[in-house]
Amino acid sequence: MTLQTRKLGSQGLKVSAIGLGCMGMSQSYGPADETESIATVHRAIELGCFFLDTAEVYGPFINEELLGRALAGKRDQVTLATKFGFKIEGGKNVGTNSHPEHIREVVDASLKRLRTDHIDLLYQHRVDRNVPIEDVAGTVGDLVKQGKVRFFGLSEAGVDTIRRAHAVHPVSALQSEYSLWERNLEQDIIPALRELGIGLVPFSPLGRGFLTGEIKRAEEYPEDDFRRNDPRYQGKNYDANVQAAQVVRDIAANLHAKPGQIALAWLLHKGTDLAPIPGTKRRTYLEENVAAASMSLNDAQMKALNEALAPGKTSGPRYSEKMMALVDR
């Protein structure tokens, strides 16, 4: 099958209905395998999954370099998204930095690593409270005029920030965590996006793996695995969340599908103005994810999912306090 395409925002940004989050190819979820990662990128393009997501901070830098190598001779076949917004020193993220001169430096460096002359979708990775969002939007607007960037996006931004940015330069997409597992966007953010004509790119659409059903307690993961420090994988939270997610496994069994496919199908049924970016570094999981786009959920199944994992039903915060401090709410 070939994936359907979707348009995000009112400026003409075209993406595949399901994208590919590339972060895990370089960090956070166990050891990397470059050969398999590049094969996964190539297989994604074959399947019509051409919306690829990276960031300078992934690695840092090495994820963009990996994509640059993977896309040799294939750059024009993909919609490529990357992000700026962090201060990186000594190979570590030491805080936010969205000052205009820094944005320009980051974009030039990202273009070199990605081996391209333009970035299709450039996000501010996290809101920088020390820099007016109007200055950020204006700087990206200038980069659009120069042809270095095609579309502007925000990540984990709140309603006020989105409105102020959009008033200066059109925001095509907001990337934020959204899934059956994490529904904090539904009350305020999604209505504002639809009012303004901005698309949504849900990251962690599989609940950082929890909605796939193939999970372990936090302490069973390696030291360098993100999930080891995820509050929702720990102690009583883990037990409660396994129980809450049982409905996903039940519906998957009835449809002879994988639980993760049900989670993605639920998202795709929430509207045509969103495109989730499940992350994987293996072709097997990529193919499973892409197949979710052809699945149909009926009203009763959607109702059961909505109710079992309603906002607030998931146990534990989605991030540590330090990471939540970077979310603009």
Task: Explain how this protein is built.
By secondary structure, the protein is α/β, with parallel strands linked by helices. It has one domain: Alpha-Beta Barrel (TIM Barrel), CATH 3.20.20. The protein is 37% helix and 16% strand. The chain has twelve helices and eleven strands. The protein has helices at 34-46, 62-70, 100-114, 133-146, 159-168, 189-196, 235-244, 246-254, 259-268, 283-291, 299-308, 321-324, and strands spanning 5-8, 13-16, 20-21, 51-53, 79-84, 86-89, 92-96, 119-124, 149-155, 171-177, 199-203. The strands form three sheets. A seven-stranded parallel β-sheet has the order 3-4-5-8-9-10-11, with helices on one face. Strand 6 and strand 7 (92-96) form a beta hairpin. Helix 4 packs across helix 5 (159-168), helix 5 packs parallel to helix 6 (189-196) and helix 8 packs across helix 9. It is globular, with a radius of gyration of 19 Å. The chain starts with a strand and ends in a 5-residue tail after the last helix.
Short key terms for the protein model shown above:
329 residues, alpha/beta, TIM Barrel, 7-stranded parallel beta sheet, two-stranded antiparallel sheet, globular
